[in-house]
Amino acid sequence: MKRFNFRGYTLLEIVVSLGVLGIVIVPLMNMFVFCHKVLSRSHDEYESIQLAQLYMEEIKAMAKIDEENYSYLSEGNMYERVVDNLNYQVRICIIPEGESGLHWVEINVHRKEEVVNDLLGSVILD
Amino acid sequence: MNSRGSILVLLATVMALLSILGATLLNVVLLNYRINKLNTESKKAFYLSENGLNESYIAARKLINEAIAYSLEKVEEEMLLHPLNEEEAKNFFSLNYKQYITVNVRNEISTTTNPAVEIRNDIIEFEDEELSLLLRSTYVSENNVVKVTWAELLIGVPDYILVKDGAGTGGDYVEFGKWGSRED
């Protein structure tokens, strides 16, 4: 006994529905691609600030400037260190403020020449 | 059963499901991005707020150096009028030093810039040859993320004999006590 009388879709129905679906799918796919980009940027944001904080805390724990790792640059009157960590290049600058003992710490996290994040702080070193 | 037009219903259902899925994903992703951005801003604000405390420490050093110079001068002036023995000179120096610090410390250490540093003590006075100051540094970022840090700054009284001979500077008589992001 035949219970259903389903005869399928016509070619016209399929063509029209594929057309409509295509029109809707394009912006939706764009949105998914956009979501992926934002998520990747968000991941970079988190990872890079964690990295910057790691080096900031390392400097804050120093009793004096670690001259093995930080080289003195006479042009800028500052100490500099460049480290490659994870997929980032971290540039750390310790800039003394006169003779007061206060030093500014500037950390820039780069990825492929682009600055992803930066962190500014200060430390007292004699 | 007439199934004419059912593909339209199916199409509408698929589109609705995809749109809901897309909108939810977009929402979650943007929320995640905002959370990470705020986390970054909060960390940046924290270090800039701590910078306020460091600057106060440097200001305290400068104030101590000024207080030492002022008190030594006062002792010398006094000695021209009345000769003082070592103990009397020591006490006179200490008295002037404490007075200079307590009068000027609020003006020298507090700032109204960003970060703003405030001395939270109601009364500023030396106890057992030490002045304990409770400092609060507040930094407000561009997007109104507020970060507050606290520190206890301890200022001591220099030994008259030592400073008279030029030994000891401001940095030897000031140190941080408790330090943190809460008042207690």
Description of the molecule:
The complex is a heterodimer of chains A (126) and B (184). With 126 residues, chain A is an alpha+beta fold. Chain A has one domain: Pantoate--beta-alanine Ligase, Chain: A,domain 2, CATH 3.30.1300. Helix content of chain A is 40%, strand content 33%. Chain A is built from 1 helix and 5 strands. Chain A has one helix spanning 11-60, and strands at 71-73, 78-85, 88-96, 102-111, 114-124. A 5-stranded antiparallel beta sheet of chain A has the order 1-2-3-4-5, covered by helices on one side. The longest helix of chain A is centred in the first third of the chain and has 50 residues, at 11-60. The radius of gyration of chain A is 28 Å and the shape is rod-shaped. The termini of chain A are far apart. Chain B is of the alpha+beta class and 184 residues long. Chain B has 2 domains: 1-32; 45-180, no CATH class. Chain B has helices at residues 6-81, 86-109, 160-164; strands spanning 116-119, 130-140, 146-156, 174-180. In chain B, strands 1-2-3-4 form a 4-stranded antiparallel beta sheet, with helices on one face. In chain B, strand 2 and strand 3 form a beta hairpin. Chain B is rod-shaped. The N and C termini of chain B lie far apart (77 Å). The model of chain B has no long low-confidence stretch (mean pLDDT 89). The chains are: A alpha+beta (126), B alpha+beta (184). Chain A binds chain B through residues 4-7, 9, 13-14, 17, 20-21, 24-25, 28, 31-32, 34-35, 38-39, 41-43, 45-46, 49, 52-53, 56, 100-102, 117, 119-124, 126, and chain B through 1, 3, 7-8, 10-11, 14-15, 18-19, 22, 25-26, 29-30, 32-33, 36-37, 39-40, 43-44, 47-48, 50-51, 54-55, 57-58, 61-62, 171.
Write a brief caption for the model.
By secondary structure, chain A is α+β, with helices and mostly antiparallel strands.
